[in-house]
Amino acid sequence: MRSLIITTLFALMFVNVLFAESSADTMRVYTYDLKEDIGPDSWRKTQKAMKESEEWGANLIIIHMNTYGGLLNAADSIRTAIVNNPTPVWVFVDNNAASAGALISISAKKIFMKSGGSIGSATVVSQTGEPLPDKYQSYMRSLMRSTAESHGADTVITGRDTTIVWHRDPKIAEAMVDPDVEIPGISEKGKVLAFTTKEAIKYNYCEGEAKNMEEIYETQVNKPYVVKKQELTFIDHIINFFISPVVQGLLVMLIIGGIYFEFQTPGIGFPIAVSILATMLYFVPLYLEGIAAHWEFLLFVLGIGLIIVEIFVTPGVGVIGVLGGLCVISGLSLAMIDTLEFEYSPILWSRLGKSVFMITVLSAVSLIGSIWLGGRLFKSSRFSNLALNTTQRIDEGYIGIDVKIKSLKGKTGVAVTDLRPSGSIEIEAKQYNAQAIYGFIIAGTKVEVVRDEMAQVYVKEVEN
In which domain, by residue range, is 245 found? Predict the structure, then answer.
């Protein structure tokens, strides 16, 4: 038995040495999927892939793609990461690489496509599918051209003529965005260009056709290889879930609704806990992904503080409340915009407008819905104890203010604190809240009650 164990250990050591000697001749291929609408989660997966592939010592990265497009800012971030990455990146288009997917695909060193696949149609459109104004299209055209140009060109000299032959023709990339670009035999004017697999191969926008990823490994990797596929952790899935636009919208409604219900119920209870939790789930994933900054969260907190001041300190709908509401909407809206977008003004204003519109509409819907739901809940017998519904009638001995305040007019006392202009005074060994009718009154000064309004005592300084 002992000899068997020793023999096994030596065999394992031999295998490890053999593997170590042959690892230099083994191609390390790292793969990850982009099979969703391109957005913050796609950019996050790409960052994770670039980091893990470098740590693993990958010789090649292959993206398994099937997408109809998505957000331009996320696509541009992915494109830039691919172009600048020292490890070559290939893309396997498993059916579709439209719009943002086309931009990402042509940034790769090589493109392989499934039979019946499609690549192109990169016009910038709104959420309703309508093409955006030319300033957006112009930016996308430049991105597509520069990405195609990054693959270089060959100089062909024929007699006295010199011709530049691009590895990926920038004009074709531009025609995928602009329907006015006409390329004889390739693109008709008035139509946005999209290639089938055969067409993409013919015009150097695809290096070959493949049925699946395994076929690419077998036919394109010319040495022994080992594949490592990206594995998203539970935390990765949680973060990707909470940075999706739909979930963010629901969280905004919970934040606003929770604040409203908290103001309608006595004490600190469940509604504010829901609002705080929703706020954390809204901001923390965006902050971890580098989309939101700390000052945007502070702007949101400042807005909540101003609203509280408006309600409890300076009652009435005034400047402070409006400013607080604007800060809340601004904080929530700006947190949704990637800090990278501030470099691109056309994209910034488009995204900012959509973000502000979405937050404003969601806040209004949440507030209206909360008012309606609150009215139904507080009137029902089951939830009536959530609000104070008892009527305090005058004929039963209830009165809204302290009747003693009415008897203070003309009496004198001493300012206990500075009145700037509000503070405390003492009359007949009892303290009252008071406000100076003009100027400031220093503590210890003798004062006289001039009048009372809405349970508020107004005083003036008594001259000695």
Answer: 235-386
Residue 184 CB coordination number (10 Å): 6
Q: Is residue 155 helix, strand or coil? A: strand
The predicted pLDDT at position 341 comes to: 44
Omega prior to 285 cis, within 30 of 0: no
Q: Work out how many domains the chain is built from and give that number.
A: 3
Per-residue model confidence as pLDDT tens digits over 125-171:
776 677 777 877 888 999 999 999 999 887 777 767 777 778 999 99
Span 82-106, pLDDT tens digits: 999 999 999 999 999 999 999 999 9
Q: Are residues 18 and 161 in the same domain?
A: yes
Strands 422-427 and 412-415: antiparallel
Q: From start to end of 274-417, where are the E strands?
A: 412-415
H-type helices in 203-269, by residue range? Answer: 213-220, 234-242, 245-264
Strands 161-166 and 153-158: antiparallel
Total residue length of the chain: 464
User: Which DSSP category does 183 fall into?
Assistant: B
Average pLDDT, whole number, for the chain? 82
- CATH number, domain of 421, equals 2.40.50.140
